[in-house]
Design goal:
Helices cover about 40% and strands about 25% of the residues. The protein contains 16 helices and 19 strands. A hairpin with a 5-residue loop joins strand 11 (about 295-305) and strand 12. It is flat, with a radius of gyration of 29 Å.
Amino acid sequence: MKQIVKLLVVLVLAMVGINTASAQAKKKANEQTEQWRYEVELVGQRSTRGGQGLVHILKVWSFSKKYDVAEEQGKKNAIHAIVYKGCPGNDAKRLGEIPALLQDPTVEMTHAEFLKNFFAEDGDYMRFVSITNGGQAEVLKVGKEYKVGLTVLVDTPSLRKYFEAKKIIMPLNEGFDKAKKPSIMVVPSDVWCKDNGYLDENGVPNYRKAFAENSQLNFVMSKMGSMMSARGFDLRLLLDVLKTIETEDAENMMLTSNTSGAAIAEDPIDKLRRVAKADIILEVSWNLNVDGMKQSMTINIIGKDSYTNEQIAACQGTGQPTYSKEIPVLLEEAVGHNLGYLIEALNGKFNDWFTLGRNIAVQVMRWDSAEFNLESEFGGKELGEIIEEYISANTVNKQYTTDMATSNKMVFSNVRIPMVNQDGKAMDARMFGQGLRRMLRDKYQITSKVMTKGLGQTTIVLGEK
C-alpha cells in the first residue's frame, strides 16, 4: 500500500512538473511572440464553399533561442500577419497578395484591449488557424537561435466575419446599404481586343464588332457576369449598354452649352462608362489551350475603379484539362480557385472608399462669353479662392490636390468625396459638381453648367448653362 501511495505521489509531482514546465514554456513563447519576429510566405489557397473568399496556406518562419518556443508561436504569427501586415503574392504559383484585414492604423489603439485578448494564450485567434503538412516543422539553426518553419492553414473569410461581428472592421454590406450596391461591368480587355483585331485606328476597342464576329465573347461575358452577380454585385451588361449608346444621336459626340458653341469632347470609353454607371470595370482576357482531346482555359481578370481607371484587383488562373468544350465550364474551372481572391481584394477597396473617400477629378472652366474669370472678386475674395474653399470643406479629411490654378481654369485631382451625402444618398462626381454649382448660384449669382466624363470626372463651366 505504501509503495502505491509513493508511486501516486511521484506521478502527481511529475505531472505538476510537466504542467509547470509547459506553462513556463508558453509564457516564454508569449513574451517572445510579442516582438512579432517572423517571416511569412503564401504557398497555397483555395476557395471556400460558394466562392465567397479564400482559405490561405502560409509557411511561417518564427525565431527563438528555443526551437519548441518558435514552433509554438507559428500559428499566432500567421494570424498576426493576416490581421496586420497581409502577405506578398507568390508569382511562381500565381497567387495574389493578401491585403491586411486592418487597413486603418488607429484600430490597434482604439481596440487595444480586444486585440490583446484575441492574441492571448488560448485566445480566439486559435479558432482560425490549423497546422497542415502533418504538423511537421522545419528547423534551421541561424546563429544563436532557431528559425522554425511551420505550414498552417488560415480561414481568412471566417476571420474577417469575426472581426466584422466584433465591430473591428466594417462589413461590406453595412457600408453599401447606406450608399449604393457596387455595380460591375465586364468587358474584354484591350489586350484581348488587340490580339483578336478589335482595336480601331485610334486604339479604341470596337466591342460591337467583337460581339458580331467572335463566338466566344458572349459566352465569356455572360458567364463572368453571372458569377459576379451570384456573389452580390449589381451587373451592368455590356451589350445592353452598347444598345443604349446606339439610341443616342450618332453625331452627338460633343457635349455643348445650350447657348453657345463652346464644347467639351467625350471619347467612346468615357461615354461607355457614363452610360453604364458601373463602379467597377472587370477587364477579361483568355486563351483556350488544346491538349489532344482535352481543353482548358487560361484567364486573366483585372478589376479597375471606373472613376479613376486605377487597378484595384486582379486574378489569373488556368483550369485543369477536360474533355468538355463548353466555354462556361472551362471558364469556371479556370477562375474557380482564384475568384475568391478577386472578391477579397474588391471588398478591401470598397471598405477603403468608405474610410478614405472616393477619388474623383474636378475641373472648373469658363465659357469665352463669360464677363468674369477665376481671378475676379466676389464678396472680397477671388472666385478661385471661393471654389477651393468649397472643395476643402466638402472632401474627406480635406483631401485633394490642386494641379492647376489660372485665371481661366482650375484642375483638382485626388478629390476624396464621401460615399454618401448629408441626406444619406450615394455621392458621385456629378453630384459633387452639382453641389458646387448650387453654391455659386445661391451665394454669388454665378450661372454654370455641370458636365461629366465617365463617372469620376466632373467639369463646371462658368458663365452659361
